[in-house]
Structure formats: structure tokens, C-alpha cells
Design a protein that fits this description.
About 50% of the residues lie in helices and about 10% in strands. By secondary structure, it is of the alpha/beta class.
Length: about 325
């Protein structure tokens, strides 16, 4: 209730400094869920201070904040204050122990800039694997969207292309780990209208459900995986689950996916998802292409003219390539009307 009142006051325009002073103190007396909400509101106050260009207050707030991404914002605030040694020190701390891949990527991008300010050698950057790129000339302006047009071109003979974007892998995750998502962990559910556990995006989500998570991975090795997941899809159809996109799934798509995708590929994808469920639900390539004879698959990201690969997409493709999962980028173009 205190947090709710503070958020309402923030939206009403009350002083950020006053709200920061009234924040509850995070201690062992707070549940994991409530402590995470305190951290999130603290981060939002830091963002509000940044919007007000109150860099000193923003620095103070971020220095007290444990929310994921706060260190990167602190580094940027130090830059606004021209405190280059402090910004560089925070960046080095992030590089040693990043809270997320997004934080690591953004910090690596900032390191050359910070090094030049301090007249230090520009640190070497690790190689990011780039997916192969192809170009496709469409015969006409896409009548629906470019992804659908490209999927139609790629569908021929044994090749079946599906426009799935973030829906397929997220849905498979939701079906495989259904029992883990809805496990009766203390504090996870406190009203009958929740679509998922209160700690779904907390760093300890997986560690609090070790047995159920392992059961999901064990199920990937089962010979009955396809039948079991389709049975679950039919049984649970329409029930709210943060990961499952019911309208985009069909029995044919599920069977094709489970027939053509190696279980090892699903394992490594799900492991990365569990590292950061909030941010790793998105960024997947637009299309999945199945060869129904060879029973193999390929992921394809489609880009219209002037479009580019986004950061979260680049991180996924780097991960795919490092784990032997085939993916590429198709830049599509078409005649001007």
C-alpha cells in the first residue's frame, strides 16, 4: 500500500526527492516480491530525476538501487556530471559482473568513449558473431506485411515457412515449464486472478523452483514430448500464461517444430530464457523455416528497406550461431508504386 501511494504521488508530480526519502527500507523482513518492487520504484525515481536533469539526485538514487539496469544508468549520470573516473569505475564493475546481457552490451559500447575521455587505451571488444545476410527482391509491394510476403516466397516444395516472431519459442517454453510457472511457491500467488507468479521476473524465479525446472528439461528428452505438449496445449487451451500465445499455435505447427528442431537447440534456448525471463522473451527472428523431408529448421529475420537489426535481436543471433542454431537475415525490397 505504501508503494502504491508513492507511485501515485510520482505520477501526480510530487517532488522526487521527497518520495525517495519516504521509500521503505529493503531488509530481510520484506518478502522477495515486495523487496523487488521497492527496487523497481527506486529505479523509476532515478529515471524521474534524470528527466528533471537533477543529476546529483539521480546519482544518489541509483547508488542505493539494486534494480537491474541501475548501474548502467549510474554510469550515464556520472557522464552527465563529467565525472569520467567514476563512470569508468562503474563500467569496469559491470564488465566484471554484468547483471544482464543488455547491460553488458551497452557498457561495452560506452567503454571506448570513456577510455578516450581518460586518455586510456581503448579496450579490445569481444567479437559479436554476425548472421549471414541475403537480399530478396519481391515482385510487388507487400499486401499485408513484408514478413508474410517473404514467408510465402520461402514456402515451396519441402520448405514450410511460418511467421512466428516471438510467439513460438515463448509458447513452447510456457508449455514445457507449465508446472514450474504455476508451482505453489510461498508468496507467488495471493489472488485468484493472477496470470502468473508474482516473482516471475525476479532473479530467483528458477532457483525457487529447481525441481520443477529440472522436470521440464527432463521432459525434453522424452520420446513422448510432442504428444505430451500437444495434450497440454489442448487441455490448457485459453488459460492465461505469460508465455503462451494460443491464437498463434496449431497442432501442425507444434508437431513440425518438435519434429524438426533438435532437443539440444530447445535446451540452450530455454536456458538463455531462464537467465532473464523478462527480456529474453523477445528478439527472436521473424520466421522459422522447416524442411519437412530432411527434418531441419532455420530461423530468418526479415528487414524492410531502411530497417536494421535491433540490439536484442543481435544478441539472440550471436547466441544462436555460437550454439549451432542456423539463422540468417533477409533484406527485402520491392518496386516503388
Amino acid at each position: 500500500l505504501v508503494l502504491h501511494a508513492l507511485r501515485a504521488s510520482l505520477e501526480a508530480g510530487e517532488s522526487v526527492s521527497s518520495l525517495f526519502q519516504r521509500l521503505p527500507v529493503v531488509s530481510s523482513a520484506l518478502s522477495t516480491v515486495v523487496a523487488a518492487r521497492v527496487d523497481k520504484l527506486t529505479f523509476q525515481l532515478g529515471q524521474a530525476a534524470e528527466r528533471n536533469k537533477d543529476w546529483l539526485l539521480a546519482r544518489t538514487i541509483y547508488q542505493s538501487c539494486e534494480y537491474k539496469g541501475a548501474r548502467h544508468r549510474l554510469m550515464r549520470v556520472h557522464e552527465q556530471l563529467a565525472d569520467w573516473p567514476a563512470a569508468f569505475a562503474v563500467a569496469q564493475d559491470i564488465l566484471r559482473e554484468p547483471a544482464s546481457e543488455a547491460e553488458l552490451q551497452a557498457t561495452r559500447r560506452a567503454m571506448p568513449r570513456l577510455a578516450r575521455k581518460l586518455k586510456l587505451p581503448v579496450p579490445a571488444q569481444p567479437e559479436v558473431l554476425q548472421a549471414p545476410t541475403d537480399h530478396l527482391d519481391l515482385a510487388e509491394v507487400p499486401p499485408i506485411c513484408v514478413e508474410v510476403s517473404v514467408s510465402q516466397v520461402l514456402t515451396h516444395g519441402n520448405q514450410q515457412a511460418h511467421y512466428v516472431e516471438n510467439t513460438l519459442f515463448s509458447s513452447l517454453f510456457g508449455l514445457v515449464f507449465w508446472e514450474a510457472i504455476f508451482a505453489p511457491v510461498p508468496g507467488a500467488f495471493f489472488n485468484p486472478f493472477q496470470a502468473g507468479p508474482a516473482d516471475l521476473f525476479h532473479p530467483e524465479f528458477a532457483s525457487r523452483r529447481t525441481r520443477e525446472i529440472q522436470a521440464g528439461f527432463d521432459a525434453l528428452a522424452s520420446d513422448n514430448l510432442a504428444d505430451d505438449l500437444i495434450s497440454r496445449w489442448q487441455c490448457k487451451f485459453g488459460l492465461q500464461n505469460h508465455f503462451v500465445f494460443w491464437a498463434q499455435l496449431s497442432e501442425e505447427l507444434l508437431r513440425q517444430a518438435l519434429r524438426c528442431m533438435p532437443r539440444e537447440s530447445l535446451q540452450v534456448i530455454f536456458k538463455r530464457m531462464l537467465d532473464d525471463l523478462k527480456n529474453h522473451r523477445s528478439g527472436y527472428p521473424d520466421l522459422i523455416v522447416f524442411d519437412t523431408v530432411q527434418q531441419i529448421f532455420e530461423l530468418v529475420e526479415v528487414k524492410a528497406p531502411g530497417d536494421r537489426v535491433q540490439d536484442n535481436q543481435a544478441r539472440w543471433m550471436d547466441y544462436f550461431l555460437r550454439h549451432g542454431i542456423p539463422c540468417r537475415v533477409i533484406h527485402a525490397s520491392w518496386p516503388h508504386p
